[in-house]
């Protein structure tokens, strides 16, 4: 169990859980197991191997971009989502999930159109938004959705 003074942050590289003092989240930090940076300012590539750790184990909300390589709007939004990652970390983790490669996860979240962003916290869907968006709109939507979590 974490306290308000610390958060569990899942390593983007090895998946280890790291306890980080809340006041030091902005300073980044490195994983206690593999010593890589806990925050890279870029979205993670989510797969069946690492999805559950990031969606359910950590204290940070996970913003998932469900996309596919054949989808024009998905490709158009990719740089915007990456720019948003640099602005939203360390408040939340951002990740991209290829719906073609990870059909079971996309099916579990009932993804019917792409791109779709889903904000997940502790394994629970908090908010969802479909359609390509520019970076500032992604940041504003994600911050607004996070405010709704405080209930």
UniProtKB/TrEMBL annotation:
Keywords, A to Z, come to: Disulfide bond, Electron transport, Metal-binding, Redox-active center, Transport
Could you tell me the superkingdom of the organism this chain comes from? Bacteria
Which InterPro entries does this UniProt record tie to the protein? Thio2_N, Thioredoxin, Thioredoxin-like_sf, Thioredoxin_CS, Thioredoxin_domain
Enumerate the CDD domains for this protein.
TRX_family
* Domain Thioredoxin, chain residue ranges per copy: 38-147
Give any Pfam family that matches: Zn_ribbon_Thio2
Similarity remark:
Belongs to the thioredoxin family.
The protein depicted here goes by the name Thioredoxin
Q: Which gene encodes it?
A: trxC
């Amino acid at each position: 169990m974490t306290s308000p003074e610390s958060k569990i942050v899942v390593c983007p590289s090895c998946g280890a859980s790291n306890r980080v003092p809340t006041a030091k989240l902005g300073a980044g930090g490195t994983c206690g197991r593999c010593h890589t940076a806990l925050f890279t300012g870029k979205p993670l590539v989510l797969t069946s191997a690492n999805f559950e750790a990031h969606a359910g184990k950590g204290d940070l909300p996970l913003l998932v971009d469900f996309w596919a390589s054949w989808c024009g709007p998905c490709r158009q939004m990719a740089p915007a989502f990456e720019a948003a990652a640099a602005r939203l970390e360390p408040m939340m983790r951002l990740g991209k999930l290829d719906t073609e490669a990870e059909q079971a996860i996309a099916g579990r979240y009932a993804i019917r159109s792409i791109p779709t962003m889903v904000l997940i916290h502790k394994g629970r869907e908090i908010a969802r938004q479909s359609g390509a968006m520019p970076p500032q709109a992604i940041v504003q939507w994600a911050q607004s959705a996070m405010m709704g979590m405080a209930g």
